[in-house]
Amino acid sequence: MAQLWGGRFTKELDQLAYNFNASITFDQKLYRQDIRGSIAHVTMLAKQGVLTEEEKNVIIDGLNGILKDVEEGKLQITTEYEDIHSFHEAVLIERVGEAGKKLHTGRSRNDQVALDMRLYVRDEIVAIKELVVNLLKVLHKLMKENTTTYMPGFTHLQKAQPVTLAHHLGAYMEMFKRDYSRLEDIYERMNYCPLGSGALAGTTYPLDREYTASLLDFKGPTLNSMDSVSDRDYIIELLSALSTIMMHLSRFSEEIIIWNSNEYQFIELDDAFSTGSSIMPQKKNPDFAELIRGKTGRVYAALTAMLTTMKGLPLAYNKDLQEDKEFTFDAIDTVKGCLTLFAGMLKTMTVQKDKMEASAKNGFTNATDAADYLVNHGVAFRDAHTIVGQLVLYCIEKNIALDDMTLEEFKAISPVFEEDIYEAISLKTCVELRNTIGAPGPKAMEQVIAINEEFLNCL
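RESULT FIELD:
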């Protein structure tokens, strides 16, 4: 058992207890961040005269050698060590001798792991932002291609009013733009360096925490050493943001699944993003949309677990905080995989424009516009609402759409109707007259698409 403590103890830790306490099996994921933090730390120690320049150079060369060997597969991180920190320090001492024993001067594992996790989360936020941007670009392209692709808009999963596919996709564009903004906010708020906080009360060594923070590209040092080693708010914020991303992906996946069904046939998923049945040869299943919908629960669970872990912890560091890593790593990997897969699925799907338009025509989505027609011809809205309700009932009994009624049939229910009713309730008219910002009309959509273009160009 290789560990960083032991002088106060008279016997070895029980093997089962050691295994339960160790974190090397999962915190080895932080090996890059741990080495980067150590290099910054010894650079600062040399600047402050705590280490000589020669000691600094020997340690940094040793750390860089370890990093290179790990990444090239020449050095294996094994469970012989308690955690990634003890692995690096033990290997360093083995390679460079006495100078390696000075690596941990003025530092505790508490502020060390707090730094490693911040560096890791910060790196992952950048990676996730790039994946969100990629999805936004896919959505933006689809919006530009489908400004005249008419489809029913829904409330309560019932056909409501005609919209365009561009307008429908634009709703998800707004959701993922907010997701991007949340990630940016978290990055800004968490971008302060805890290194130099020690175990909980700082250190008597003359550390230059501002310098260390600058070496690691933080805005500055954290301002309270107790908070520094026990703070996991940024992880909770990230898991909350990731849960929201997954909620948006899950909602969109649900619609993809519905649209891909035999009953709707609004889209067809590419073969590369579909699977078949082991027994039913006709099946083409939207398994990947379903998996994304299902994996949302994993990310929600990580957020709940982190909140539960933190809720009763007194200041400052407690071993419970070791539980922050595994489910955070899993949530990050899950979201990255789902964003990548979903963008690919969306990019390759085929839009069945005729099916969408036919569905809008046959679902009385233009009923509100028929009522507006009557209002514009002097009928009180409440009376117009009743008249159009009678029209819809008549069409249901005849199994026809409003567009299929003859003028005589219209007039039999209300003499106000004239020949221009057909233009008033056409899908094109219903959509094109809705041009307030945020609506599906062409002028409104052109404005929104331009705003989105500018947003993407600034990223």
